[in-house]
Amino acid sequence: MPVVRSLPTPEAESLLELTRDLVEREVLPQVEKAEANAEFPRELIRTLGRAGLLGLAYPEEHGGGGQPYEVYLQVLEELARGWAGLAVSVSVHTLSCFPVAVWGTEEQKARFLPDMLGGELLGAYCLSEAHSGSDAAALSTRAAREGDDYVVHGAKAWVTNAGQADFYNLMVRTGGEGPGGISCLLASSDTVGLLPQRPERKMGMRASHTATVVLDGARVPADRLIAEEGQGFRVAMSALDSGRLGIAAVAVGVAQAALGLATSYAKERKQFGKAIAEFQGVSFTLADMATQVEAARSLYLTAARLRDAGKPYGPQASMAKLFATDTAMRVTTDAVQVLGGAGYVEDHPAERYFREAKVMQIFEGTNQVQRLVIGRSLTRS
Ligand SMILES: Cc1cc2nc3c(=O)[nH]c(=O)nc-3n(C[C@H](O)[C@H](O)[C@H](O)COP(=O)(O)OP(=O)(O)OC[C@H]3O[C@@H](n4cnc5c(N)ncnc54)[C@H](O)[C@@H]3O)c2cc1C
After folding, report:
1. What is the pTM of this model?
2. Whether residue 78 lies in the annotated active site
3. Could you say which of 13, 23, 226, 291 would form a disulfide bridge with 27 (CB–CB 3.0 to 4.6 Å)?
4. pLDDT tens readout for residues 150-175
């Protein structure tokens, strides 16, 4: 079932076509086995990098694709339609390039960005800790200046791409309590004392590795401080506004895949002498699923177009993340229902979509936290 898109340029049309082609040829043949075995698709991510898909939304002068955010997000949605875990890795990589690209000095941008955006390197974003999730400003990993280095002690939890990434954005405490004591360091994966642990055993997206990263006296050169000391929380939050739109697009991709599967199945499966799609009880479910997917896509595109126009888009990004991920949960649940017993077993990907959708309501700010952000924007203005 093709998605009808309105894209801003012929170049964007070609990019979407290239992505769909890559998904058919490279992504779909690998996804089920890799998810079953929790195998991280590092080589496939390199293939996406060589196709220019790892730096799409960043300026061409630093090696990015120079594409509007709305185009990048639609590429991400198509990738997620094939493999959510893969798309999440790309989304987190894009998020991980944000601190240098937006807050870095010109020297840092020239030094780091071409490799980060060039397709060979993969990034990670380390904000959460075991005791500070939604209350991210309570983080306790410490970095103390010693000569030309920061020496970091602590542990970052739930790091997507951990153990596979080449660079890690570390949100660390260099000052007192609260958000004003946090700084952002860009650490390389070969930093001595930066120790990714065993990947978590997750309900879904098992091929997307998530792990704790222990920092045991890790020395990060002081010229890898991004922005000023004490500005790290602002850096982290501004990156998340963009990142949340990535998660919204991934959620729409998963919901679209579930809708496509449920529709095909309902046209094939016969009960009481006819295709189940002919029963209004089923076709109304499909109609509601399709309407929700379109609405979620419209919401992330609206926020992205505000961002592309240089306008504030934070609350809209939270609305898009909230609505798109709740939609993915509802639509994937309905897809399992439309398939009946077949939806509950691994012969069809409906159960995988369902497991993948759940985490999207949790990471990059739970959906309760999105409501906090939206609520504050209403009462503060
Ligand atoms: C697969 C996966 C990948 C992840 N990747 C990354 C990553 O790459 N980098 C990173 O930094 N983090 C990552 N995370 C962490 C993720 O962002 C956190 O799990 C999330 O922010 C929630 O934190 P928590 O798990 O500690 O839950 P908690 O903060 O303990 O929340 C528990 C429950 O309480 C609710 N709650 C908390 N505070 C409030 C409140 N004020 N009002 C109402 N409800 C509230 C929450 O919504 C939730 O339902 C990842 C998590 C997962 C599961």
Report:
1. 0.98
2. no
3. 23
4. 999 999 999 999 999 999 999 999 99
